[in-house]
Amino acid sequence: MSPLQPYRNHERRPTHPPGKPRLDKIGGILYAAAVTIIDVGRRRAMAIAVICAGLVIPLWIYPSTLVVLTIGAFLMQFMVQGAWGVIPAHLTELSPPEVRGLFSGLAYQIGVPLASGAAVSQAILAERYGYAATLAAIAAIVMLSATVVILLGRERMGRDLHSAA
Question: Is residue 50 within 8 Å of 147, Cβ to Cβ?
């Protein structure tokens, strides 16, 4: 079996060779730095990252070599951390002052039960269609849905957080 094929029968193998840097995680840090320097606005930064993450899915899910897998993982982390890393600040700016401390945490906690069935449904789909195809489809659906929600939202960057709405 190729080391790049999805594991069958729930085999557990090391996913990261010891002693090698985690280039994928470095990607997330670099996106945050790039967005800070470029200053395109939170909403636009999230939308760009999510759209680009959707375009990176084939490199990340269907790599032909370990180098392509590393590049795909790096780019996916670059985009995903770039998009989701901005959300807490964006939610703070969107929330009314009276509930600002509650709003983002409550939004996250409401998301947990909504997503609770995801692992089971993904496992069922993976049994039928294969792990790689299921992961690619779920990632594409998430990226497309996130793009729509982000682009339909409003930008409140630079809002005075101490004044009333």
Answer: yes
DSSP the chain: --TTSPPSTT----SS-TTS--HHHHHHHHHHHHHHHH---HHHHHHHHHHHHHHHHHHHHS-SSHHHHHHHHHHHHHHHHHHHTSHHHHHHHHS-GGGHHHHHHHHHHHHHHHHTTHHHHHHHHHHHH-HHHHHHHHHHHHHHHHHHHHHHS---TT--TTS--
**In the chain, domain spans:** 23-152
Q: What is the pLDDT along the chain (165 residues), one digit of tens a residue?
A: 444 555 444 455 555 555 455 666 677 677 767 766 667 777 888 888 899 999 999 998 998 888 888 888 888 888 888 788 777 777 777 788 788 888 878 888 998 898 888 889 999 999 999 999 999 999 999 999 999 988 887 766 666 656 654
